[in-house]
Specification:
8 helices, eight-stranded mixed beta sheet, binds iron/sulfur cluster
């Protein structure tokens, strides 16, 4: 447990958490929407500080990040809680719970996590993932600062539902972001995640403007966010606001948690893939076995420059600066290779 950053004392012992756009007003003894930030006597406490429930060395492609150190592994850590309540959550056992409702976890510390990350020589960084790292902001920040000093990269896998001020304070320490763009309507965000879309779009723009590496993931859910016109609007927005070189992962949904719509029809997913490709240079298909939408192909000369089979990745056609070895087209950003 640690005192939270980003909160205000209100009248009496009430507090207002300003970490995410829910801006929860929390009475003494109660918790916020994320279930892991508690008002104790007028002080806001991060109850999940150091409560790490999962650690694993993963391929960076699992985050998913396809244009950031392709083929490398990254030490991945997760905690408990989430500020969204998605009906289709894939990790609901750890995200839709608080510390008091979960099996007791030992305390971990930033130096321990960094030490574990350094144990493997082929590991290049730490990914804050599995549950939403916004709700363990303090532990992520402390760990990321230490990791950076040790020469490790920091990666955040996030829903992007965070207020601008805490996001901006985090930016100097996080090198790459994998952001879920769950749909392109506020109605979807309200009905299926209990949040709003505009703060997410604003976060994506802030991250991009800061020059950080960012990739977006859109989970396509049957009869829920799979409308082709809505998808066109989303990909137009990405191309116009973030750039047509933004990596977009479109991912197949399977029934999970409180959502029982049938799995996404693969032909529908591939139709959206074709729509996205007309607007964006790098589009990938996830959660589906298909030869298409896996490799990185140079948008200028058509040469395959990174080949993927499942989580096995081979860089086949890039020069040492991450450009196409065939025609010199820039594929990867600076410091991504
Ligand atoms: S981080 Fe948690 S407590 Fe704070 S505003 Fe968001 S949901 Fe509420």
């Amino acid at each position: 447990m640690k005192e939270a950053l980003f909160y205000k004392r209100l009248y009496g012992e009430d507090v207002k958490c300003t970490l995410c756009p829910h801006d929860c007003v929390i009475k003494e003894g109660r918790r916020g929407i994320c279930r892991v930030r508690k008002n104790e006597g007028g002080k806001l406490i991060s109850e999940n500080y150091g409560k790490i429930c999962s650690t694993h060395f993963d391929p960076i492609e699992k985050k998913p990040l396809y244009h950031y150190f392709p083929g490398k592994i990254i030490f991945s850590v997760g905690s408990l809680g989430c500020n969204l309540h998605c009906k289709f959550c894939q990790n609901w056992e750890i995200s839709q719970t608080g510390v008091k409702d979960y099996i007791p976890l030992p305390d971990s510390f930033p130096d321990k996590i960094v030490g574990m990350a350094l144990q493997r020589k082929d590991n290049f960084g730490i990914a804050y993932t599995y549950n939403e790292p916004i709700v363990w902001y303090e532990f992520m920040l402390d760990t990321a600062k230490l990791a950076q000093k040790k020469g490790l990269k920091n990666v955040m896998v996030t829903n992007g539902f965070i207020n601008p001020e805490p996001l901006k304070e985090l930016l100097p320490f996080i090198d790459a972001f994998s952001v879920d763009l769950k749909a392109f309507t506020d109605e979807f965000y309200k009905n299926y995640t209990l949040s709003r879309i505009n703060p997410v779009l604003e976060s994506i723009k802030i991250i991009k403007d800061a020059g950080k590496h960012i990739e977006l993931t859109n989970l396509v859910i049957t009869e829920t966010n799979d409308d082709a016109r809505e998808f066109m609007r989303m990909t137009d927005w990405i191309a116009g606001e973030i750039g047509d070189d933004t990596v977009l992962h479109i991912s197949r949904y399977f029934p999970m948690y409180k959502m029982n719509k049938p799995a996404t029809d693969v032909s529908k997913l591939m139709n959206l893939y074709e729509i996205a490709k007309q607007r964006l240079k790098f589009v990938f298909v996830g959660n589906v076995r298909t030869g298409e939408g896996q490799d990185t192909v140079c948008p200028n000369c058509g040469k395959t420059v990174i080949s993927r089979m499942g989580y096995s990745t081979e860089v086949t056609g890039l020069d040492r600066k991450g450009r196409c070895a065939g025609c010199g087209e820039k594929i990867l950003g600076d410091d991504c290779f």
